[in-house]
Amino acid sequence: MEEQKGKKIHLNEYMEILLENRKKEVVKEDHINELNRKKGEGLTSPTTETTTEETRLFTDYMHRANIFHIAKSDEKRGKLLMLRKFFKSKRNDEVEVYSKCGKECIHTVGKVSTIGRDFVMLTNLNKRIWIPYSVIESANIPHGIPTYSNTHQHLFYDNNLRDKLLYNFGETVAKRDVLKQQFFEETLNTNLHAWKETWVEVHLNEGGKIVGKIVSSINNKCTLSYFRKKVEVDLEKVQYITTIRFLRLFANMKKYFLKGDKEDEK
Fold it and tell me: What gap in Å lies between CA 202 and CA 186, rounded to an integer?
């Protein structure tokens, strides 16, 4: 072929040269495609020249290396990507998170429930906790819990679900929170809107706390109601959100009414 460079040749001459080179070509055995052909599943193109396990390991290494390279040039974005990668690898597992709330450091332990674009939701026996990535100082696995390379899951193959995803993707994903998390990373704003009518306690970076029921969360503003009073909270100022139990809510109600009685006396 090198001899023919720069020289015009006819198709029949090119075919003769090509067939001659094909005869000299070393044929590499492909056991995977050979088995697929016998099963009638057709042939697949290999992603790389290496073996499949080497490709998997290299892909994982490449993703991690890219995150560290991004972190060197953009520390803020790199931290966000690292936290998201860590929490995704520990989905449904127990983790501990150290976060800032004003000048106070909060230690939170819970199972990773939702991994969003700019937040993580942890759950324990008592409550749900929303923590923005921007306030997280460190995340780790609690002492004494073994480290697994992959989260422990029971998998089953659902042909009905596969058909629904193929022919009615949007509606199927919209109805299931688990699928939403796999195909779409929510923001804190959109996730809170899905938890309307939930009583929460919001911690602000100024050190204040607001208790109320979520009315809506639109345009990065979360509206809370507390006995006919509505408060709009800027989510950029939020450092910690937790659901509130009935006993805690009852105590807040008592304080609210006592405060109202004192104001009436004045």
Answer: 19
User: Which residues on adjacent β-strands are paired with residue 107?
Assistant: 98
**Cβ(237)–Cβ(204) below 8 Å:** yes
- pTM to 2 decimals? 0.71
Written as six digits, the tokens of 109 are 């332990």
pLDDT tens sequence for the chain (266 residues): 445 556 778 888 889 888 888 888 877 777 777 887 787 777 777 777 778 888 888 888 998 899 989 988 888 888 999 999 999 888 888 999 999 877 788 899 999 988 989 999 999 888 899 999 999 999 998 887 666 555 555 556 677 888 888 888 888 887 777 777 677 788 899 888 888 888 898 988 877 888 888 988 888 889 888 877 888 888 888 888 999 876 665 555 555 544 544 444 44
- Name which of 101, 162, 183 is nearest 134 in CA terms: 101
